[in-house]
UniProtKB/TrEMBL annotation:
Keywords associated with the record: Membrane, Transmembrane, Transmembrane helix
Name of the protein: YtxH domain-containing protein
Pfam entry (one): YtxH
Transmembrane spans: 6-28
Keyword Membrane: yes
Keyword Cytoplasm assigned: no
Family matches, as InterPro entries: Desiccation-related_membrane, YtxH
């Protein structure tokens, strides 16, 4: 469903752009020759513009990727620390329980005197 919505949105953008370009050419205050020259210059500049846009997008993607890696590494480090702290606490609690069992298992001095 989301793909259909995205396709319809992109189609609407393209159709609106085409209609806008046609209307712009028809109501332009310049002559046809001047408009064609401007369009030719614009078309000639498109490859350079596309290259600039591609470079910018690549730069932003690299920056976001680097940021994501740094955030992930920080998250992993905190997770390792939390796991280590949990293991330490678990071992400490296990030792405390064993000590309590040992104390409970020892006969008291009053019961030793009765026997």
């Amino acid at each position: 469903m989301a793909k259909n919505s995205t396709g319809a949105f992109i189609g609407g953008i393209l159709l609106g752009g085409a209609i806008g370009a046609i209307v712009g050419v028809l109501v332009a205050p310049r002559s046809g020759r001047e408009t064609r020259q401007i369009l030719k210059k614009s078309a000639d500049a498109l490859p350079e513009l596309a290259e600039d846009l591609s470079t910018t997008v690549q730069f932003q993607a690299d920056r976001l990727s680097e940021s994501a890696v740094q955030n992930w590494e920080g998250t992993l480090e905190r997770l390792k620390e939390a796991i280590a702290a949990g293991l330490d606490a678990s071992q400490l609690k296990a030792q405390e329980l064993n000590e309590m069992r040992n104390i409970a298992a020892k006969p008291t001095s009053s019961s030793e005197q009765r026997d």
